[in-house]
Write a structure and sequence with these properties.
eight-stranded parallel beta sheet; 459 residues; two-stranded antiparallel sheet; alpha/beta
């Protein structure tokens, strides 16, 4: 009896390896993407590699004024926001902690319902590792990170990082953080070819925060007697339920994941239509690392001044943002702001967002973007995905020094040698346009050109 012919191969549903798609494949890909996008947004949260969920819209607190940030946090919680993003360097954690305590005590929300993030600052890494493990002076490392110090152990490297985490918890009035991030791949006061302590030493100290605190096995409890203090300490819960990174390039992230015992759950980076950061977003998705966008509405003049980056025009006055908002308003019959369409754009590509505001009406409008009524049309999404030129608003130039470890933006972000020139040229092009982009766009149209053409490629 002749063997039956083999079954036909299954339909191709992983399109990542394909360069050219047929019309049918394009249609199927669009349908699959729309279904996944709708599911994420309906839940209002993304699943982390820890099994926990991170809310898609949070409240950023950088540069939130003292005396106002607490009220903003309380109002955000009252209106349903369940992710509060903090950092020790923001110098407002105590006021945020007071707002959290008020919300918990008044029954606005329970602790377990709120996702709280904080970050390890650069000056808290000294003491987190030894000086060994780096390359010889003047010899750059061949990998994104040098090996961790061979003389270090997890018991030795953790005190500085643990102390910083506990300090944030004390200021916030919490027993644990839902997420603790390494703020930058930078160490205060470090100069030379390599980070000292190495990033991997810091990361191993971070990993300890996810384990029960106290170490070792306790005694007591097995014979009906109360556990000893040592046994209780051994079962103290972790200080951080998840750990992650911020401002980390794809190359550094891959090197970290190759050596880590606990992979990062999140990479918090700059991402908005003026800096799509598309390659990094795609790489993180492939690695199972969630991306959260800080500065999702671009950079304010105050933020640019604080960072020493120099002013750039407002993203929210960009012709693409204004056009998308006008289109969405007309299509839905409901007013849509540029901020709302820009936030929704990031959400629809799987990136959670941390808009900052201290105004109740804007906080509410930012949370509204999770509604299905705020879905973008394909044309609106493409318009926001095609903005040129692309430039970082938070380039990190303030970390560059002639002695290293980062002498150029290319070294900080692990890009090619032309990265610094491209950033300068893109920022210069943005500044030449000035604040009134829409007016200059009209002028260019009268001349027969377009100031904001772009290639149309989606990142």
């Amino acid at each position: 009896m002749a063997a039956s012919p083999p079954p036909p191969p299954p339909a191709v549903r992983d399109f990542r390896a394909l360069v050219l798609l047929s019309p049918a494949q394009r249609a199927e890909l669009a349908a699959l993407d729309a279904r996944d996008r709708a599911g994420r947004l309906a839940r209002g949260a993304a699943l982390l590699n820890t099994g926990a969920s991170i809310p898609l819209v949070g409240l950023g607190t950088w540069q939130a004024p003292p005396g106002e940030v607490g009220a903003a946090v309380y109002e955000a919680l009252r209106r349903g926001c369940r992710h509060i993003d903090c950092a020790s360097v923001y110098a407002n954690e105590r006021e945020i902690g007071d707002a959290l305590a008020r919300a918990f005590s008044e029954g606005v929300c329970a602790r377990e319902d709120v996702f709280v993030t904080s970050k390890l600052w650069n000056d808290a890494k000294r003491g987190a590792g030894g000086a060994g493990g780096g390359a010889a002076p003047g010899a750059p490392s061949s990998s994104a990170f040098p090996p961790a110090s061979s003389s270090s152990s997890s018991a030795v490297v953790s005190p500085a990082v643990e102390a910083a985490c506990r300090a944030s918890l004390e200021r916030l009035g919490l027993d644990y953080l839902d997420l603790y991030l390494v703020h930058w791949p930078v160490v205060t006061g470090c100069s030379g070819p390599e980070l000292d302590p190495p990033y991997l030493d810091t990361w191993r100290a971070m990993e300890r925060l996810t384990r029960p605190q106290g170490g070792g096995g306790g005694d007591g409890g097995g014979d009906g007697k109360a556990p000893t203090a040592a046994a209780a300490a051994a079962t103290a819960p972790p200080l951080a339920r998840a750990i992650g990174v911020s401002n980390l390039s794809e190359r550094k992230l891959r090197a970290l994941m190759a050596a880590a015992s606990v992979p990062p759950a999140v990479n918090q980076v700059e991402a908005h239509p003026l800096w799509r950061n598309g390659a990094l977003v795609r790489a993180c998705a492939g690695l199972g690392v969630h991306v959260t966008a800080y500065s999702p509405l671009g950079s304010s003049p105050e933020a640019a001044a604080a960072l020493g980056e120099g002013p750039t025009p407002s993203l929210l006055r960009h012709p693409a943002a204004l056009s998308a908002a006008e289109s969405a308003s007309r299509r839905t019959g409901q007013p849509r702001s540029p901020a709302q369409v820009v936030l929704r754009w990031n959400l629809e590509r799987g990136v959670s967002v941390l808009p900052k505001s201290v105004r109740a009406e804007r906080i509410a409008a930012n949370l509204d973007v999770l509604s299905a009524q705020h879905a973008l049309s394909e044309e609106e999404r493409l318009s926001l995905s095609s903005v040129e030129p692309q430039a970082r608003m938070v380039a990190g130039g303030f970390w560059l020094t002639a002695r290293g470890p980062y002498r150029t933006l290319a070294e900080l972000w692990d890009e090619d040698a032309g990265a610094d020139a491209r950033q300068r040229e893109a920022v210069a092009a943005l500044r030449r346009l000035g604040p009134d982009w829409a007016d200059k766009e009209k002028e260019k149209e009268k001349e027969g050109g377009g100031a904001w053409g772009g290639s149309g490629a989606c990142d």
